[in-house]
């Protein structure tokens, strides 16, 4: 099979948020390399495209229920890939992971309740809690010898004051795949303090072959899992996500909130979930992608360590997001932003929105052709040399 990451896909001019958003939203020149939004510059698995084309050819696009076949597809996927036995009746559709998390927080907590997060973390975690008028209790991750770990003392103190915990597993942006032992400790603390655990596992299927993802729902059936095939199969624009919730009363409350917000799938969302999770051609495609992403991630990190020694990274264990420490560069976050966009001509995700300790970091998306990444590193090297940073 040909390399997935190196196949040509022109996204500029397609109304891509990642590519066309730079000019439309930020008024940047077209030669700025977009290495920010969390999608990949590749075509999805051919078998998924075929299934979507077949659905389109039917010409029927009315209001659509969450297909029982899609629920069964999710069930079979978790059984086959994550050793988790799921009842299809416990699987609900959602039009995205962030909407799912928002609706769960609204359904299962009250205004003023505490919600635990672990920064640095995907910015909507903080935003949706604040937007729902709940209190954020942060239990920041700790970095030890280039590896991020949970601070269980801080997590316990936060759980004492909260009613719900938003877990990012695998973690965005630091790329940790939490071990079974770590997740067991999370479950023990949550049960001790009567905290509902909601796990965002959207990057789980991009866990590198050298690591193993543990579905936290396999350790405690009361955990609510939110996920989607969108990251793994690069179909985020189809908004095909789901919630797994075994507790009947919680599920009823979540559905009540969803109904208020008119949550329904499109016909294409059903098709995408079924094709991604049941067609073995798509599964083989995904396994190749995971191998390529791990290899490319390691090569990019090696290149950064060789050519940009003032920048530091941790080695992710999943996905295509690289958390880079720029703290050795004598710049404020705002100065670095101006320099990256104007001089280096590279657009990364700034670390500040990921939490109070993220201001000296940038998140790089390595899910693109290798030559673009090499160009980005070369541009950084040239501009750092001009400023005598290397």
What characteristics describe this protein?
cysteine-S-conjugate beta-lyase, 4-stranded antiparallel β-sheet, 390 residues, transaminase activity, coiled coil, single chain, 14% strand, alpha/beta, globular, 7-stranded mixed β-sheet, Class-II_PLP-Dep_Aminotrans, 42% helix, Aspartate Aminotransferase, domain 1, 13 helices, Aspartate Aminotransferase, domain 2
Would you kindly provide a written description of the structure presented here, covering whatever features stand out?
By secondary structure, the chain is of the alpha/beta class. It folds into two domains: 130 residues, Alpha-Beta Complex (Aspartate Aminotransferase, domain 1), CATH 3.90.1150.10; 220 residues, 3-Layer(aba) Sandwich (Aspartate Aminotransferase, domain 2). It contains 13 helices and 15 strands. The strands form four sheets. The protein has a seven-stranded mixed beta sheet with strand order 2-10-9-8-7-3-4, sandwiched between helices. Helix 5 links the parallel strand 3 and strand 4. It is globular. It starts with 16 loop residues before the first helix and ends with a helix. The relative contact order is 0.17. The mean pLDDT is 97. This is cysteine-S-conjugate beta-lyase. Its cofactor is pyridoxal 5'-phosphate. One of its GO terms (molecular function) is transaminase activity.
Number of domains: 2
Largest beta sheet, briefly? 7 strands, mixed
Instruction: Give the number of helices.
Output: 13
Write the CATH architecture name of the largest domain: 3-Layer(aba) Sandwich
Calculate Rg over CA atoms: 21 Å
Say which CATH homologous superfamily of the largest domain is assigned: Type I PLP-dependent aspartate aminotransferase-like (Major domain)
Q: Which CATH C-level class of the largest domain is it?
A: Alpha Beta
Helix content: 40-55%
Sequence stretches where pLDDT stays below 50 over 5 or more residues: none
Termini Cα gap = 40 Å
């Amino acid at each position: 099979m040909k390399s997935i990451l190196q196949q040509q896909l022109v996204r500029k001019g397609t109304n891509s948020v990642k590519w066309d958003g730079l000019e439309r939203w930020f008024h940047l020149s077209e030669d700025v390399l977009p290495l920010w939004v969390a999608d990949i510059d590749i075509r999805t698995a051919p078998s998924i495209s075929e299934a979507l084309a077949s659905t389109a050819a039917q010409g029927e696009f009315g209001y659509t229920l969450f297909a029982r076949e899609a629920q069964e597809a999710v069930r079979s996927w978790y059984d086959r890939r994550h050793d988790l036995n799921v009842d299809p009746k416990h699987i609900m559709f959602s039009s995205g992971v962030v909407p799912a998390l928002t609706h769960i927080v609204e359904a299962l907590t009250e205004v003023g309740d505490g919600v635990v997060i672990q920064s640095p973390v995907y910015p909507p975690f903080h935003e949706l809690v604040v937007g729902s008028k709940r209190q954020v209790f942060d239990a920041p991750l700790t970095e030890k010898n280039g590896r991020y770990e949970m601070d269980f003392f801080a997590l316990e103190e936060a759980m004492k004051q909260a009613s719900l915990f938003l877990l990012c597993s695998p973690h965005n942006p630091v790329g940790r795949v939490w071990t079974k032992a770590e997740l067991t400790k999370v479950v023990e603390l949550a049960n001790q303090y009567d905290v509902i655990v909601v796990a965002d596992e959207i990057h789980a299927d991009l866990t590198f072959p050298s690591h193993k993802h543990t579905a936290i729902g396999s350790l405690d059936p009361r955990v609510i899992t939110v996920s989607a095939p969108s990251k793994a199969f690069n179909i985020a624009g189809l908004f095909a996500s789901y919630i797994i919730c075994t507790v009947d009363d919680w599920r009823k409350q979540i559905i009540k909130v969803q109904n208020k917000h008119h949550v329904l799938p499109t016909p294409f969302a059903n098709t995408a979930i079924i094709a991604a999770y049941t067609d073995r051609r798509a599964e083989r495609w995904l396994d190749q992608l995971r191998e390529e992403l791990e290899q490319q991630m390691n090569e990019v990190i090696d290149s950064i360590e060789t050519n940009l020694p003032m920048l530091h990274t941790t080695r992710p264990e999943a996905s295509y997001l690289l958390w880079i420490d720029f703290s050795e560069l004598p710049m404020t976050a705002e100065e670095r932003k101006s320099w990256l966009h104007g001089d280096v001509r590279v657009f990364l995700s700034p670390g500040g929105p990921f939490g109070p300790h993220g201001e000296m970091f940038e998140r790089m998306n390595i899910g693109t052709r290798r030559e673009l990444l090499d160009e980005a590193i070369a541009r950084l090297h040239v501009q750092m040399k001009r400023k005598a940073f290397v």
